């Protein structure tokens, strides 16, 4: 595989899209005190209110130290609240605050706008086909990782 082949491999193209998207979201969210990797935690917490940090680490496939740092920054900015688990006082549960819920809505809007700009010029059929193919590729990757 020569250098040009690598630049056009599926993995490289997906990585390129991811990097551009991450850079865009990071730039927009920096204004609100949210760093590049922290918005993933905020998005996950929207769907998993009351999750324990260890479970969140496993879900997002990051180490505990990364989770602790991200949650501390989000808590300092008022987006999340960590409270003792009533069933196990040694453990913590993490929830979004009202400010965190508002930020989730904002991130969803940003993501939608970004997706629309990425798919500008695509026909509805092309968008549907791309989604179907991406879902299939993701499914294949998940099967390989079992």
TrEMBL record:
Residues 3-139 form the HTH marR-type domain. GO terms for molecular function: DNA binding; DNA-binding transcription factor activity. InterPro entries: HTH_MarR-typ, WH-like_DNA-bd_sf, WH_DNA-bd_sf. The keyword Transcription applies. Pfam families: MarR. SUPFAM superfamilies: Winged helix' DNA-binding domain (SSF46785). Keywords: DNA-binding, Transcription, Transcription regulation. This is MarR family transcriptional regulator.
């Amino acid at each position: 595989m020569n250098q040009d082949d690598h630049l056009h491999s599926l993995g490289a193209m997906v990585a390129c899209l991811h990097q551009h998207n991450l850079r865009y979201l990071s730039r927009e969210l920096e204004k609100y005190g949210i760093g590049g990797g922290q918005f993933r935690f905020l998005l996950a917490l929207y769907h998993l209110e009351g999750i324990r940090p260890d479970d969140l680490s496993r879900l997002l496939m990051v180490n505990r130290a990364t989770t602790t740092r991200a949650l501390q920054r989000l808590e300092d900015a008022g987006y999340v609240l960590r409270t003792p688990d009533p069933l196990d006082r040694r453990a913590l549960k993490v929830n979004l605050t009202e400010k965190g819920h508002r930020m989730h809505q904002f991130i969803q809007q940003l993501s939608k706008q970004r997706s629309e700009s990425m798919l500008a010029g695509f026909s509805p059929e092309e968008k549907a086909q791309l989604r179907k193919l991406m879902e299939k590729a993701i499914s294949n990757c998940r099967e390989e990782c079992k």
